[in-house]
Amino acid sequence: MAQGIPDEVMMNDTLIKELADVAKDAALLQGVLMRIQETPNSSELVTYAPFTLFPTPVPKAVFLQALAVQTHYNTLVDKISQDTDFLEEALSSTIAVDDFTARLFKLHQQILKEGRSQSIVLGLNRSDYMLDQRDDGSSSLKQIEINTFAASFGGLSSRTPDVHRHVLKVAGRLEESQNILDNNPAAGLARAVAKAWELYGSERAVVMFLVEESQRNIFDQRYIESELWKRYCGRGAVLEETSQQLYDGQEVAVVYFRNGYMPQNYISEQTWDARLLMERSLAVKCPDISTHLAGTKKVQQVLTRPGVLEKFFPDQPQVVEQIRATFAGLYTLDMGDKTVTMALEEPDRYVLKPQREGGGNNIYGSEICQVLQGVKGSTERMAYILMDKIHPAPVQNYLLRRDAPLQLNNCLSELGVFGTYVRQGKDMVMNECVGHLLRTKSSEHSDGGVAAGVAVLDNPLLI
Ligand code: ADP
Ligand code: MG
Ligand code: MG
Hints:
There is one protein chain. The chain is α+β, with helices and mostly antiparallel strands. It has one domain. 38% of the residues lie in helices and 24% in strands. The chain is built from 17 helices and 19 strands. The chain has helices at residues 7-10, 13-30, 60-68, 70-82, 84-97, 99-114, 160-170, 174-178, 185-200, 218-232, 269-280, 289-294, 297-303, 308-312, 317-324, 338-345, 365-375, and strands at 33-35, 46-48, 51-52, 56-58, 120-133, 139-147, 206-210, 237-241, 252-257, 284-286, 330-332, 350-354, 363-364, 384-388, 395-400, 408-424, 427-442, 456-458, 460-462. The strands form five sheets. Strands 3, 5, 6, 15, 16, 17 and 18 form a seven-stranded antiparallel beta sheet that branches. A four-stranded parallel beta sheet has the order 8-7-9-10, covered by helices on one side. Strand 5 and strand 6 (139-147) form a beta hairpin. Helix 5 (84-97) runs antiparallel to helix 6 and helix 9 crosses helix 10 (218-232). The N and C termini lie close together (12 Å). Bound molecules: adenosine-5'-diphosphate and magnesium ion (MG) (2 copies). One magnesium ion binds at residues 145, 147, 357. One magnesium ion (MG) binds at residues 145, 147, 357.
């Protein structure tokens, strides 16, 4: 591990086995928990959420760059969500061929026609990056995507620093242990939810967490809920419900969606009706339908066109520059087959992305050719965007996962930064960067995602 954990530790099998046991107990002790796959809706049996044995070295300058740009990304997402013409133009080709995005867009149009019911907007997002390795060995921060809907692991990542600190201490690496940063996205996310609740202005009203049918990752949102109870108790109630029922008999001030970003979440027309009902309601939606659309990969691609960022920040060239510096190459498939040809020639240089979330949807390598051959010459190709593949420097680490063998892996990491904002009418009342998330996966896997079972939780060790 370059400037990280020395080989004498990394390669000492006896020590590694001992540390793995220590690490798992530390994770359980700190509450880095997940329900088990077999019983995702019961807390009778829980296990540690998968995580790395050691933290991963991350260059300090790049880490700080990611934190520094976050409030600008918050502003950008919020501006996009208010720019109806931009959203319509950016998404017009996608909605012509992608049914799910089209359905969301239709809902958006309906809400605009009826008039927005609520002028308070709550944004909880996470901008994800990988560090692209340059030829000179330095790395450059490249955004993978921004999640405006159900960005998770702000809870569990508030608890992982103490786990790695402890492991490093036991390993005799006191200095590294002291370099693990504090992190508390849960508190920041809760602060924004509470602010939205307060502005809503009804003592009786509650915050509703709209949760998934299968709730393996429940402890992640419990931390946010717990922060709300702890710090804002007496100023309102917190509760949660499943996707099927709207909470009965209580006024809802804030709906926090942790469910509803995948087509599979909309199992019936009633589910779409429920989404519409919530969008129409007076509740503050996190996210509202416009902010949901602002987080699509198609919008991400359109933002890289010349002049688009300038339109959103007309008098702030330094903000434009800061945001643009994090853009990877993104290409439209709308303009004939030019991009298709480019990707077919060198598929390993790119990632092909449909408008989907949650991991496991992107297309890599030779499969890009298969898919593109199939949609070449047809408008179906417009459902995708093409992106330069980012190549982070691999780092060796052990991934701790229930029932998985303990082995040294070549790993790639993805850094996420949590941003929150609350807007009331024209006033940005709150705009913050509230913490980070490092996820690490074996380099064998192209795609990522902790919930998808590929990546595991990690901490940056600043170097
Ligand atoms: P999702 O919304 O499903 O999380 P992402 O765009 O984040 O979609 O892609 C999922 C995973 O695929 C990422 O976590 C990352 O591991 C990998 N990935 C995505 N884009 C790239 C890229 N441009 N270069 C390298 N890996 C990528
Ligand atoms: Mg992602
Ligand atoms: Mg995503």
